[in-house]
Design goal:
The modification 2-(S-cysteinyl)pyruvic acid O-phosphothioketal is found at residue 125. The chain is an alpha/beta fold and 442 residues long. It has two domains: 8-23 and 240-441, UDP-n-acetylglucosamine1-carboxyvinyl-transferase, Chain (Alpha-beta prism), CATH 3.65.10.10; 27-237, UDP-n-acetylglucosamine1-carboxyvinyl-transferase, Chain (Alpha-beta prism). Helices cover 29% and strands 24% of the residues. Strands 17, 18, 19, 20 and 21 form a five-stranded mixed sheet that branches. A hairpin with a 3-residue loop joins strand 15 and strand 16. The chain is globular. The chain binds uridine-diphosphate-N-acetylglucosamine and phosphoenolpyruvate.
Length: 442
């Protein structure tokens, strides 16, 4: 494994990726399930936990609050003991927040357990403004008091937290999780409307139910939570990472390869599989995973827009765009979740891709960004051969997309900043080895 050893890969592209790999637990569930442990009064066991840097960041934050964490090699097991949760020093919280957005989700659990919480500077991918206004609004509705301090935001709940009728202006994943993690121990009933219902959220609800929570997911994005007085521990196997699985599928397609992704599951990937099939990719699903391959011949362009679940998720968009450079004709991608998630295409253009960005909502329905001057639609003209280049990783998924482009390109590429990719792709260099990729460190 390369993590921490170097930040540059020299990739010799132009050969198909062929072989098997395994994806483990989803980054977007594992970090939240770890936060849920803060609510528990007994020990918790999370399995299928991947070795990614986001897990290290959240572990560091939880340890600051007195949660004892051990890991074993058995099934990626993480043992969390929250029986002695304590107040942490604000400066230390800031130092541990790192590149993740998860710290904002500690608010509800810490308010319940300690009566006080701080929100440090948040990290996460720079793919848009990413405000936390929904989070603060819902916390206030539960009874939290939010004060601006020189060191950040301080939250208290002088009268305790009470269930509320909450409506989200947009089905935000993080704000939905904020409501869940706060409402489960709040006094009374919470009714959340316009909730996000991503598979990782449903898996978090499963974790909370194991702990003793009472949560019902109703039709039309409504979630009802009856607060309880005490939550116990949990033993849970994390849902597999459908974003990582989709990323390797795109790598197989763009390199004309054949990759078996052990752990990939059909149900959470249905929107991806439909698109993969429409562009001409082949896949075969069995009980253990999904095989993705380029069946030969030409790939078809398509019009697509990203959306909240059950739509085509935004995190698949960047790897897919690289594969779309190899389809015949004009593809349109309308990014409706983040206003600035197409900037990574500039480097692809340097590698020979023909991609034009537009401010208009192209190829789909008008979205929140239509009148706001963001270049959030792309037209990709293909197929275009890609050539090696020197490129720098802009964000997590953009970084993996650059790796795909470098592997698909003729010649050599130097990819800088690969450490960012370890936020969400476990042991990716080992996986590249297993697929026969040619690259050097440095
Ligand atoms: C760690 C994690 O799980 N990250 C995922 C999570 O991010 P995250 O939870 O941050 O994403 P959200 O669903 O909250 O964000 C969606 C949109 O809502 C906006 N918004 C959000 C909160 C808020 O208070 N105000 C506001 O305006 C955001 O700027 C964005 O435009 O869901 C995204 C959408 O599926 C994924 O791309 C990320 O991989
Ligand atoms: C945007 C992402 O994650 P985060 O919310 O952690 O920045 C991602 O996983 O692509």
């Amino acid at each position: 494994m390369l993590w921490g050893m170097t930040d540059v890969l020299t990739v010799n592209g132009g050969a198909p990726l062929v072989g098997d790999l395994e994806v483990r637990g989803a980054k977007n569930l594992v970090s939240k399930a770890m936060v849920a442990a803060l609510l528990a009064e007994d020990r918790c066991r999370l399995r299928n936990v991947p070795e990614i840097s986001d897990v290290k960041i959240v572990s560091g934050l939880l340890e600051l609050h007195g949660v004892r964490i051990d890991s074993t090699d058995r099934d990626g097991e993480l043992l969390l003991d929250p029986t002695n949760v304590e107040q942490a020093h604000v400066a230390d919280i800031d130092a541990h927040a790192g590149s993740s957005r998860v710290p904002v989700l500690l608010c509800g659990p810490l308010l319940h357990r300690l009566g006080e919480a701080f929100i440090p500077d948040l990290g996460g991918c720079r793919i848009g403004e990413r405000p936390i206004n929904y989070h603060l609004d819902v916390l206030r509705q539960f009874g939290a008091d939010v004060q601006k301090r020189p060191e950040g935001l301080r939250l208290t709940a002088p009268g305790g937290l009470r269930g509320a009728k909450v409506h989200l202006p947009y089905p935000s994943v993080g704000a939905t999780e904020q409501v869940l993690l706060t409402a489960v121990r709040a006094q009374g009933v919470t009714e959340l409307s316009n909730a996000a219902v991503e598979p990782e959220i449903i898996d978090l609800i499963c974790v909370l139910q194991k702990m003793g929570a009472i949560i019902s997911v109703e039709t039309d994005r409504v979630i009802k939570i009856e607060g309880v007085e005490r939550l116990g521990g949990f033993d849970h196997r994390a849902i597999p990472d459908r974003i990582e699985a989709g990323s390797w599928a795109c790598a197989a397609l763009a390199t004309r390869g054949d990759v078996y992704v052990r752990g990939a599951q059909q149900q959470p990937m249905m929107p991806f599989l439909n698109v993969f099939r429409k562009v001409g990719g082949a896949f075969d699903i069995d009980d253990e995973g999904i095989r993705f391959w380029h069946p030969g011949g030409r790939l078809e362009s398509l019009a697509l827009e990203t959306d909240v679940h059950p739509g085509f998720m935004t995190d698949w968009q960047q790897p897919l765009v690289v594969a779309l450079t190899q389809t015949s004709g004009l593809s349109i991608v309308h990014e409706t979740v983040y206003e600035n998630r197409l900037g990574f295409t500039e480097a692809l253009a340097e590698m020979g891709a023909v991609i034009q960005l537009y401010r208009e909502c192209l190829g789909g329905s008008p979205c929140r960004f239509g009148r706001a001057n963001f270049r959030h639609s792309a037209v990709i003209s293909g197929p275009t051969p890609l050539r090696g280049a020197e490129i720098t990783v802009p964000d997590l998924r953009g970084g993996f997309s650059y790796l795909i482009a470098a592997l698909a390109a003729e010649g050599q590429s130097k990819v800088h900043g690969i450490d960012l990719i370890y936020r969400g792709y476990e042991r990716f260099s080992d996986k590249l080895d297993a697929l026969g990729a040619s690259y050097d460190v440095g």
